[in-house]
Structures are given as C-alpha cells and as structure tokens.
Amino acid sequence: MQGGVPIGKCVVAFKPSGKVIEVEVGTILMDAANQAGVEIEVPCGGQGRCGRCKVLVEHGPVYQPPNVHIPSDEVEQGHVLACQGVIKGDAVLFVPPREKIEYIVSVERAPEKIALPVKCDWRMEPTIRKLFVAIEPPSLADNTSDLDRLKRELARQYGIKDITVSLSLLRKMAHTLREADWRVTAVLEMRTWASGDQAAPRLIDLLPGDQTGSSLGIAVDIGTTTNVVYLVDLLSGKVIDTASAYNAQISCGEDIISRIVYSRRDGGLQHLQSLVVKTINGLLAKLASRNKIDLREINQMTVAGNTTMIHFFLGLDPESIRLEPYIPTVSHPLPITAREIGIEINPEATIDCLPSVGAYVGGDITAGVLSSGLFAADKLTLFMDIGTNGEIVLGNSDWLISCACSAGPAFEGSGVKHGMRATAGAIEEIWINSNTYEPTYRAIGDVPPRGICGSGMISLLAEMFITGVIDKAGRINCHLPTPRVRLGEHGPEYVIAWGEEAGIGHDIVITEVDIANLMRAKAAMYAGFSVLVRSVGIDLSDVEEVLIGGAFGKYINVEKAIQIGLLPDMPWEKFKFLGNTSILGAYTALLCPDMRREIVDIARKMTYLELSADNTFYNEFTSALFLPHTDLSKFPSVKRLLEGQKVAISQGAV
To answer: Which residues are CB-contacts of 606 (< 8 A; sequence separation ≥ 6)?
Structure first.
C-alpha cells in the first residue's frame, strides 16, 4: 500500500477464452479485457449507464461501485460491470457469451443503378493518370539519373514538366526500371486541390510494363452505425461493387458522445481508430476477393463522415467536440497517405476527408448537400439526414443554414431490443388489425423475421398509435384483449412475432423502453427542423421541397412518418427520398475534381446553428415527445384520421 492505494501487479484470467493478462492493481476490468484482447461490448462507452457489460467474478477481489444497473443481490453473486469493476488482485472472470454483431454485411448492387448524382466532365481533369513510359536505358554517353530520366520522358511524351516522389518509391525505382527493361507505367496524382491551386504531380506508383488499362479508387462513408465502401473504376466512372458493414466501434458506444467518453480511457482513442480502420480494411478485402483485384491497384480514397467519426479515423482527440463551445481539432483535414493510417491499398494513395461545417455537421452533410443538388437548388429546400445523428440543412443556391440534433441510433437498429439493420430477416413494414390487434408484417428477403429495421419501426409505431395499442405518450395499453400485449422483463411489451415463426428462436417484441427511445429520436428531428426554419423567419409551410438522406431514408413510408411526427405534415409530393447521400457525395468528389472544390464552397457558405445555444429547442423537443405532437393542429391529416377512427369505432365499423 502507498498512501492508501494498492500497488503492484496482478494476474487476470478470462473465461471461456482462456486469455490471461498481467495488469496493475486498480485497473478497470474493461481496460484489462482490452489489453488481453477480450471483447466486451460497452454500448454506453463505459459510463455505467446501460448495465449491459456484466461479467461474473469466479475468483478474486474485484470491487463493484454502487450502480443502479446492478442490484446488490447480483453483486453478492459475483456480477460486476466491466466498465466499473476495479481489479484488486489476482482474479478469474467469466465473460458471458453475447449475440455477436455481424460486422461484415456485404451489400451488392447492380453497378448501372449507381450513377453520378450531378453532371461533371470528370474525364477532362482526371485526378489519377496512368501513363506508359518507354525510357532510353542509361549508357556511358548518357549517365542521367533514373529519376531524371523518368522526368525527361514524362515531359517529352506527355508535357508533364515536373513530379514529386516519396522516399519509399525512390527506394524501389532502380529495381523496377531495370526489371521492367525501362518500360513502365507511371501512376501520377494530379495535384489540384480544393483551393484550385496546382502543384507538381505526385508519383504514387511505378509499375512494370503497360498497366494503363485500369485505374481504381474507393469512396467511403464512415457512419456512426454503418460503414459503406464503393469500388470505383476511375476510367469509366462506374461503381464496380459496393460493400457495407457495421462500424466495429459500436462495441465501444452506440452513439458519438459515448465513444468520445470511451476515447478518454487509457488507449481508448487508439482502440477506436484501429476499429474503424479494421472495418474498412475488412470491406476492402471482401471487394478485392469478389472482384479479383489487388488492393494495391486502388490509388485514391475519398472519405465522408461526421466530424467525430473523421477525428476517430485520423486518431485526433475529439474531446473538445462534446465540451462547450464545441470546437473540433480540424474542420478540413489535409490529405494523408494510406500508409500513414494503415488502410490496405496503395501505400502512397491519397486519402481525402471531406470538409465539415461544425462540431456536429460534418463532411457527410457537405457531401449530402452536393449529391442531393441542394447547393444548386432554386426552391427553398429542407434537407434531412436521418441517422444516428440528425443533421438538417435549409436553403437553396444562394444561402444555406444547418443544425444537428442527437437523434440516437434507434432508427438504425441500436438501442432497440430487437432492432437490426435492413438486411435479410428484418421486418420492414407492419400492419395491425384494429379489431384483433394482430400484426401482419413483411420481412426483407421473405425469410423468417430476425428483428425490425428503421422503416419497420416507423411503421410499427404509427400502427400501434392509430389502433390504440399505445397512447400519445407511447404507453402500451395493457388492458387490450390480446396476448400480444404482456408484461415482459423490462415492463410492458407488444409481441410482433411469436418464437415459432421467428428466425431467432424466441419472440420478437417492442418494449415501452424501445418506444421511448424511438420517440426521443423522432422528437429531436422534428424539434431540429422546427427551430431551424424559425431561425430564418419562415414557416414550415414555406418549404417547397424536403429531401431525405440517410441509409434507410428511401424506405420510409411518408404517411407513417407523418403519423408519428417524424416528418412535418405536408403534401406527400414535396418529399424526395435519396438514400445514402453521404456515400454518393464521396463518390462524386472522388471522380470529379470540380465537384470536390464545390464541396469546399458549400462548407464555407453554410451557417451553423448551435441548437444547445437556442433556448427554444428544448421546448420544441418536449412538445414533440408525443404522438404525433402535443399540438395536434400541426398535423391536420393525423387529426382527421384519429377523428375518423373514433367515429368508426362508435358506429361499430372498426
């Protein structure tokens, strides 16, 4: 003991993995697990708020501080929270098996269906040029150096007067030139960046023979929940293939703030950075295998993501993003090379992260404003990216104003007991019979249901509200004459699918806790765009078009989204669903240098409204925590529907 604090080392063994680690006495259990390579998911980022990281102490002294999520009887049985338990000596710990997140979820699309969302003549200004160069071998009469010989031929054959070369390429140049008998392909990055300034082209590879027949790049969307990669043919402009996966950082927190908290732990930031790089590299490996390519052939990468995700990707400390006045380390990161960050493509390839506007309006939104066409719109347009974080932009070609609200990950499958991504087995739409309260649903892929995705949650919430299964506050009516409504482990719940029909071996339900999470998410979105339009002195009715981005945006049922108050009550023809506008913007910026410069202009001219500094946001949020809203006059179509339901019930028609 020193000053009342235990000192020394202790040995910690983990079951059933059998991994053993030596740590300092006083180490948090979760940190010991990380050092040992034992995965323990901490959805709240290690704040002790969720209680979902319980482990069992089989032997040894581990102190569990008081916590509402772990009652005293469980502590007596040896249960502790991994994020809170303090190791005080040699210990043996059992980590209960949990349902694994399927991190690699490949998604294939027909390439012809993915087209550039804006017009650009990208062939006139290619970012990557692959040039075949036949070089005169050196002789006693011409003893020019290898690099100067290459430069001389590039100038003579292609008018390129100078290039820059890294030390790593210089080290292999002599061997490559001679092995290739002085007939090589120079891979050049034409360095015209966002400012419009031109620099000398950069040699990023030197290949034997004529390899000018192909040129590859990748566009990446680093989402809080999902990462998406497009493999792009830079010669034809086509998307060759796509893949997506859960962001492996989910194990360290389901939302941005939880992950920022996690990053403050010893080694936390490095761990988060390694997880997102691991996710992207896993997707790249799948694409390479499926398309029979060498990852070294990929010579450029463009990345879109919210400000925090880009900080994690680059290994930058994001702590100041969550602290007033909410300032990021950088808004427009300088280009880096793949070698610097560990992305397994051509080590010299440039990785270009798109610019952000503020702490909570990132490059995914500037990319979305580009790909949606909002930057050139004549109409007064409202753009919303509905995901883990709800970002909103209002304006047209003359002006833009933006804000962000913490919608949470509920609509992306996290924070809901049986929530999942929109993959095979996900319930995507539900109808409830008003007489029997029996549901009818449709699952993606026409296979037994395994859970419910975002579009299904919106549909379910609306149906439960309209049929009276829940009231406007989201409380389940436990007096309905149906076995579908029951008291579960976490309070009242509604059974969507019985175990015998589900593909997971047990009932699929939605709980009041789930409903509360969904209602907070929809309330944040509604409050966000309500405050934004008011801030510029207009009414929602003045908006001429509403553009919806986000991974599941194009699957949203407008009618149902209005019924729960997620979208404003407007004519349906005003809504346009665009899908993942972030990855489309990254794809556009990858291929079109002029559009890459346009994104910088978008970021510069966009005003950022900090909602935490607007006193009206909390009031709007509170009012929107009901279905569809406390002020039903804002939702005339829903009001008419509810009144019609009452009349029908009174007449026995329903």
So the answer is: 357, 361, 366, 369, 393, 395, 400, 401, 402
**Residue whose C-alpha is closest to residue 328's, from 610, 56, 45, 648:** 610
pLDDT on residue 67: 85
Give CA separation, 626 vs 222, 454, 572, 654, in Å: 32, 19, 22, 24
Tell me the three-class secondary structure of 81-141, residue by residue.
Answer: ECCCCEECCCEEEECCCCCCCCCEECCCCCHHHCCCCCCCCHHHCCCEEEEEEECCCCECC
Q: Which residues of the chain form CATH 3.10.20.880?
A: 111-208
Q: What is the pLDDT of residue 197?
A: 61
> What is the torsional sign of CA 263, 267, 272, 277?
positive
Place of tokens 């439960």: 464
**Structure confidence by residue, pLDDT tens digits, 49-65:** 777 888 999 999 999 88
Q: Which amino acid is at 59?
A: H
Q: What is the DSSP string of 467-525?
A: TTSB-TT--B-TTSSSTTEEEETTEEEEEEE-TTTSSSSS-EEEEHHHHHHHHHHHHHH
Class of domain 111-208: alpha beta
In angstroms, the Cα distances linking 119 to 123, 545, 585 are: 12, 21, 12
**Tell me, what DSSP letter sits at residue 38?**
-
DSSP character for 71? -
> From the CB of residue 168, how many other CB atoms can be counted at a distance below 10 Å?
12
Q: How confident is the model at residue 106 (pLDDT cuts 50, 70, 90)?
A: very low
The count of other CB atoms within 10 Å of the CB of residue 405 is: 25
- CATH topology for 9-94 is Ubiquitin-like (UB roll) (3.10.20)
Angle at 462 (CA atoms; ends 461, 463), nearest 5 degrees: 95
**What's the half-sphere exposure (Cβ side, CA atoms, 13 Å) at 219?**
31
Max CA separation in the chain (angstroms): 105
Does position 145 have pLDDT exceeding 80, yes or no? yes
Span 622-644, pLDDT tens digits: 999 999 999 999 999 998 988 87
Q: Which residues make up the CATH 3.10.20.30 domain(s) of the chain?
A: 9-94
Where is 152: in which H helix or E strand? helix 146-158
